[in-house]
Specification:
Elements (H helix, E strand, L loop, with lengths): L1 E6 L2 H18 L5 E6 L3 H10 L5 E11 L2 E9 L12 E9 L3 H10 L5 E9 L9 E5 L2 E4 L9 E2 L3 E2 L2
Parallel strand pairs: 1-8, 2-3, 2-5, 5-6, 6-7
Antiparallel strand pairs: 3-4, 9-10
Helix pairs in contact: 1-2
């Protein structure tokens, strides 16, 4: 990983959402549902839902990253998880902020694979080492990414009171 950082601002995030939506439309894909990978994919899923006029949004909570370049041994789906039957026969667009290792995307794709008609993936960033290549990518980078919603850190530390 490069020592330099990639910085995503809120205005650039808006550009990324619109660009990804255009990629989806240009490919001819018409999702029935946008599935966010929480937390990082929530904003992207909302933006794509509006841009693609898809009102059916859902989220799956996955814990994997615990810090800068620190992660659990395997991704873990956290409750509540959408019932797979609710995804039955749908064309699903999976939305996440970054495909770094790709293991989270692989985990979510496997979770829904036997239930959906088709699943495609949209990410803001894709890293070269990912094991899952997204169908729609805004930018590719090998840098650590500073996202506008997480660059300053939390205001509250749930493990021990106020952070700042």
């Amino acid at each position: 990983m490069s020592a330099e950082r990639e910085t995503l601002t809120y205005p650039l995030f808006g550009d990324a959402v619109r660009d990804l939506a255009h990629q989806v439309v240009d490919s001819g894909y018409e999702p029935d549902l946008v599935l966010a990978i929480a937390r990082g994919g929530l904003g992207l899923a909302m933006g794509l839902g509006y841009a693609l006029d898809v009102k059916n949004l859902s989220a799956v909570n996955v814990e994997f990253y615990t810090g800068v370049d620190e992660r659990l041994a395997v991704p873990i789906l956290l409750p509540p998880t959408p019932a797979a039957i609710d995804l039955s026969g749908l064309r699903v667009l999976i939305a996440d902020d970054v495909s770094d290792s790709g293991r989270t995307l692989e985990h979510v794709r496997a979770f829904i694979a036997d239930h959906v008609a088709d699943a495609r993936i949209a990410v803001i960033y894709e890293k070269p080492q990912t094991i899952v290549k997204a169908d729609y990518v805004w930018r590719r980078t090998d840098r650590w990414i500073d996202f506008p919603w997480s660059v300053e850190g939390p205001i509250v530390d749930r493990r021990g009171g106020l952070a700042h």
